[in-house]
């Protein structure tokens, strides 16, 4: 596959963890991949191999790093790809939070002692600013919410619009171009898994 002159971002969400399977907010806790998550990552390796990467980056958390290595990448660590800091909500499901705060959503409500949506958006913008200086296929291996915000910001949408981009474990997404416009070329593709 020929390298595009402008950056084309190939996003990979890490494979399943126990917490992702249980739908717990998994921000900065370093939860390992499950055996199923490793199998998912090995499965999408074929799709990832189709690209010749000029750069690859991963969150410093082990679930992202292990996924990156299982799909055949040797990424640089990128702290701006860390998942949202969920503060007091770390390790808790949305359903559990709503028992005491009905209607709560990470997208629209405060995250007590964690990052705000604007802080996550600022972090993603800082990363995109650097990536837009590069060329070719760039792999980013990270987490659901930060990649969803990245998808929204790539399109020039407010960070909160990441809520409109569902993202399952071990999926491939591509952010690229149609002429001068930034577009989504592919999103939440399990590459034939399941």
For the biggest sheet, the summary is:
6 strands, mixed
- Strand content is 15-25%
Remind me, CATH topology?
Answer: Rossmann fold
**What radius of gyration results from the CA coordinates?**
16 Å
The count of DSSP E runs of length 2 or more, i.e. the number of strands, is 6
Question: Count of DSSP helices?
Answer: 6
Percent range of helical residues: 25-40%
Mean pLDDT: 96
CATH class: Alpha Beta
How does this structure look, described?
The chain has a six-stranded mixed sheet with strand order 3-2-4-1-5-6, sandwiched between helices. It is α/β, with parallel strands linked by helices and 194 residues long. Helix 2 packs across helix 3 and helix 5 crosses helix 6. It has a single domain, classed as Phosphoglycerate mutase-like (Rossmann fold, 3-Layer(aba) Sandwich). The mean pLDDT is 96. A hairpin with a 2-residue loop joins strand 5 and strand 6.
Write a brief structural summary.
The protein has 194 residues and is α/β, with parallel strands linked by helices. It contains six helices and six strands. 41% of the residues are buried.
Key features of this structure:
six-stranded mixed beta sheet, Rossmann fold, alpha/beta, 194 residues
Task: Draw up the topology in text.
Blueprint: E1 7-13, H1 18-21, H2 35-49, E2 53-58, H3 62-70, E3 76-77, H4 94-98, H5 117-131, E4 136-142, H6 144-154, E5 172-178, E6 181-189
Parallel strand pairs: 1-4, 2-3, 2-4
Antiparallel strand pairs: 1-5, 5-6
Helix pairs in contact: 2-3, 5-6
């Amino acid at each position: 596959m020929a390298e595009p002159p402008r950056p084309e971002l190939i996003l990979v969400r890490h494979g399943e963890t126990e917490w992702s399977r249980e739908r717990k907010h998994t921000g900065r806790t370093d939860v390992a991949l499950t055996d199923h998550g490793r199998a998912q990552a090995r499965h999408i390796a074929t799709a990832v191999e189709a690209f010749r990467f000029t750069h690859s980056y991963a969150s410093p958390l082990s679930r992202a790093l292990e996924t990156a290595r299982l799909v055949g990448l040797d990424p640089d660590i990128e702290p701006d790809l860390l998942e949202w800091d969920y503060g007091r909500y770390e390790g808790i499901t949305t359903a559990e939070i709503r028992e005491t705060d009905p209607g709560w959503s990470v997208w629209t409500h405060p995250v007590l002692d964690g990052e705000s949506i604007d802080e996550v958006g600022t972090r993603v913008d800082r990363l995109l600013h650097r990536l837009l200086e590069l060329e070719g296929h760039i792999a980013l291996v990270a987490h659901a919410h930060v990649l969803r915000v990245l998808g929204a910001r790539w399109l020039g949408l407010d960070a909160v619009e990441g809520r409109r981009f569902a993202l399952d474990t071990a999926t491939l997404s591509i952010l690229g171009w149609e002429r001068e416009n930034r577009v989504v070329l592919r999103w939440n593709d399990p590459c034939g898994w399941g």
